[in-house]
Design goal:
binds flavin-adenine dinucleotide, 17 strands, alpha/beta, seven-stranded mixed sheet, D-Amino Acid Oxidase, Chain A, domain 2, FAD/NAD(P)-binding domain
Length: 388
């Protein structure tokens, strides 16, 4: 007979480890499955805005490789300027260490972790669902949290999270010489100028520079070549590349189904990433917490598991919609009027001050959007016609 748990969490990234930790801390019997052995690499810039770190009940200092307070912005190497947040707005981490820290806390709270467990099938029954892994293991639980990333095989098996929008991203970890590593410290570099939207980044870490690009899905085939061009502009084209990997990011824009009465999706599986910066770690952690709350209520018979979707609609979607509006206006103006728009954003402190305030957790995209008269109406008009 398959072992029985209250909840099986599939995927031990930020969404899954957070859900597992909060559930186990509340006394639930939690099985956490991941196909990988940890620590494992994840293609990611590893930019953790300060607001993200604040969502966790423990410090992330042991895995922070740098703190950035400067933002260096350019348009294809031109119109370059630097903005200063005055204090760090984001921490820089390598995901293998960051995710291992979150997983460690889930284990300490009492979640049982089984690495090397790729989920192969899901049988939804009453009163529980049965999960089988590639290596022949099986377990059942009343609730399943699918936190299995942007491809979300479990979401597919449950018929959830379908028809989400997506984009393509590509990451290289560059072993730059010591002076280059030191020169980049404290600064996040952003290169704009990709149409209809997208950007390249350079984020400083202790031993590498994390360099990558995010673009609309139709341009996935050009990412390697464009990162190569960015590396040339940075003078890093001869530096050794330790790892190069692509991954997609998905976006929930409307009421796509992410919950049934046995299965809920969290993090990238549910498309909870923002369309302005394409960040997803904070929404993964936030949705992991909301998922834990929903599961506990369902286990107690206080609410159906499907109530999770209403909570995400109420607590997360307003921010993702606001980020999409900002993306639409920002990249729209940049695409049409690159030089004047770069000059305008350089001259107007409001834009970057607001960005820093959101990153530090002192404001939200939704609040910033509501402060600009006519922005929601203008952006809604553009969104009705545009790609972003
Ligand atoms: C190139 C790139 C750069 C990015 N940069 C940033 C950034 O700087 N800041 C930011 O906030 N966000 C960034 N993001 C987005 C961020 O990486 C994701 O939003 C975040 O990882 C989502 O966390 P998650 O827990 O939902 O999923 P993941 O971190 O993807 O974790 C999913 C887990 O599920 C496991 N899994 C998958 N399938 C199965 C299966 N069948 N069985 C068992 N386990 C399975 C995987 O092994 C994995 O461990 C970036 C994304 C990309 C692609």
């Amino acid at each position: 007979m398959a072992p029985q748990f209250d909840v099986i969490v599939v995927g031990a990234g930020p969404a899954g480890s957070t859900a597992a930790r909060e559930l186990a801390a509340s006394g639930a019997r939690v099985l956490l499955l991941d196909r990988a052995a940890f620590p494992r690499y994840k293609a990611c810039g590893g930019g953790i805005p300060r607001r993200t770190a604040r969502l966790l009940p423990f410090p992330i200092d042991p895995v922070v490789e740098d703190q950035v307070s400067l933002l260096d912005i350019a348009w294809r190497g031109r119109y370059r300027f630097v903005r200063d947040s005055g204090e760090p707005f984001a921490a820089m981490v390598m995901r293998e260490r960051f995710d291992a820290l979150l997983l460690d806390h889930a284990g300490r709270a009492g979640a049982e972790f089984r690495p090397g467990s790729a989920v192969r099938s899901l049988e939804i029954g009453q009163p529980s669902a049965l999960v089988r892994t590639e290596d022949g293991f099986a377990a059942s639980a009343a609730c399943i949290v699918a936190a299995d990333g942007a491809h979300s095989p479990v979401g597919r098996m449950a018929g959830l999270g379908q028809d989400l929008a997506e984009c393509a991203a590509y990451e290289v970890e560059v072993r730059a010489p010591g002076p280059r590593l030191r020169a980049a410290r404290g600064t996040a570099f952003i290169e704009l100028g990709y149409r209809p939207w997208g950007y390249a980044w350079l984020f400083p870490k202790a031993e590498v520079l994390s360099i990558g690009i995010v673009l609309p899905p139709g341009q996935a085939g050009t990412m390697k070549q464009r990162v190569g061009a960015y590396l040339r502009r940075l003078g890093l084209d001869t530096a050794a590349v330790a790892i190069a990997r692509g991954h997609k990011i998905r976006f929930r824009r409307g009421g796509e189904r992410i919950a049934s009465d046995r299965v809920i999706l969290a993090g990238d599986a549910a498309g909870l990433a923002d369309e302005f910066t394409q960040e997803g770690i904070s929404y993964a952690i936030e949705s992991g917490r909301i998922a834990a709350r929903a599961v506990l209520r369902a286990l107690a018979g206080a609410a159906p598991l499907t109530a999770y979707q209403h909570s995400i609609d109420r607590e997360v979607m307003p921010e993702l919609r606001a980020a999409r509006l900002i993306a639409s206006m920002f990249y729209g103006m940049l695409g049409r009027f690159p030089a004047p728009w770069m000059q305008a954003t350089r001259a107007l402190p409001y834009l970057w001050d607001a960005f820093f305030a959101v990153q530090r957790g002192e404001s939200t995209y939704a609040r910033e959007v509501s402060r600009v008269p006519l922005l929601p109406a203008l952006a809604a008009h553009r969104l009705a016609r545009a790609d972003v």
